[in-house]
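Dear support,

Our group has been running a series of protein-ligand predictions, and this particular one with zinc ion is the one our PI (initials K.S.) wants archived with full inputs and outputs. We had some confusion internally about which version of the output was final, so please treat the block below as the authoritative record. The input we submitted was:
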Amino acid sequence: MFRVDLDSLIVAYLVILLGGLALVWIAAEIFQRGRDKRRRKNFVICSICEHTFEDTSGKELVSCPGCGALNERDAIHEI
Ligand SMILES: [Zn+2]
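Confirmed final output from the archive:
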């Protein structure tokens, strides 16, 4: 059995605790970005009336429910 003084024990505890929190934070960030990317993929902004709607069909041309115009699916960028 090896001897560990109190200072080393506290440092090891803090390293493990902060490392675990960093891993959870990174995993949550990756999950959030994936979810936002999937969500933005389904949203379409009409180029005629600027109506924003969700379309999960996956078609490249989608019809606007507001004015009926056909719109190409583009990626929506955050401002
Ligand atoms: Zn429209």
